[in-house]
Amino acid sequence: MHTLHTITTDELALDNPVLHSEYLSLVNHLIDLIRDLANKNSKLMPSSSLTERYDTNSNEAYLELVLNDGSNRYCSHIYIHKSNQKFIVGNCGSGMPATAANEVIDTVIIQIKKLGWI
User: Fold this and answer.
1) What angle, 0 to 180 degrees and rounded to 10, lies between the N-to-C axes of helices 2-15 and 17-40?
2) SS3 string of 31-82?
3) 114, burial (CB in 10 Å: exposed 0-12, middle 13-18, buried 19+)
4) Is 102 helix (H, G, I), strand (E, B) or coil?
5) What would you report as the CA-atom Rg of the chain, rounded to the nearest whole angstrom?
6) pLDDT tens string for the chain (118 positions)?
7) CA distances from 103 to 3, 8, 36, 86 (A)
């Protein structure tokens, strides 16, 4: 499925370069967020990940963010909506819409704060 994700993001670069730029920024921000959280809570390090995925039911690429410290778990899917006009932060292709990386990060941080990791 990684290949389908790559094809989708390559198409995004052609169809919507602005959103593609936001996607690249989002990936970097999510990596930084995982790193910062793991530095503050070493229990997050072995069980946290950011994975490129593809949903064959909705035909959409998404990022799967998983944070787990052994007692609490956060999982979110960040879809590149098939219209290529926005991101959807949630699961199964539905959730909060966002058009910029900082909007996605803000949504994720709100959820993570509820777990006490920030």
Assistant:
1) 130
2) HHHHHHHHHHCHHHHHHCEEEEEEECCCCEEEEEEEEECCCCEEEEEEEECC
3) exposed
4) helix
5) 14
6) 568 889 989 999 999 999 999 999 999 999 999 999 999 999 998 999 999 999 888 888 999 999 999 999 999 999 998 676 899 998 765 788 999 999 999 999 999 999 988 8
7) 27, 21, 19, 11
